[in-house]
Amino acid sequence: MADLIGVHVRQVSKYEMGTSLPTLERIRRMAEVLQVSADELVFGVTKRKAGESPAIRYPVLAERLRKLDAVVTRDDLKSIVDFLDAFIAKKQIDQIANGRG
Fold it and tell me: How do residues 1-42 score in pLDDT, each as one tens digit?
């Protein structure tokens, strides 16, 4: 790996131990060598394929979203997004008020 990204073996060891951080160019090169995205390398995030939905933690929500997708209009979508934004904001305010945020 060290030779492939242009650093000394000790430097790679420092990256692995977290005592040194690679530059963006080194991250780009490591991702290229390992044939993964920089996001996956840095954050452990795998890129989704085109059209693939993000994982949803609660199956009941995933099912409702699938049903909704077939019948929603633009106006409906705006109302739903506005509701979700308000719900999320309220939960965040509640967390702050209760000292958890």
Answer: 888 889 999 998 988 888 989 999 999 898 888 888 888 878
pTM, full prediction: 0.44
Q: Which residues contact 9 (CB under 8 A, 6 or more apart)?
A: 2
Task: Tell me the CA distances in angstroms from 97 to 64, 86, 89, one per residue in order.
Answer: 31, 16, 12
Three-class secondary structure of residue 1 per DSSP: coil
- The secondary element (H helix, E strand) that includes residue 87 is helix 74-97
Q: Which two structure tokens, joined as six digits, stand for 7?
A: 């650093």
DSSP state of 92: H
Q: How many CB atoms neighbour CB 76 within 10 A?
A: 11
Q: Report the distance separating Cα 29 and Cα 36, nearest Å.
A: 10
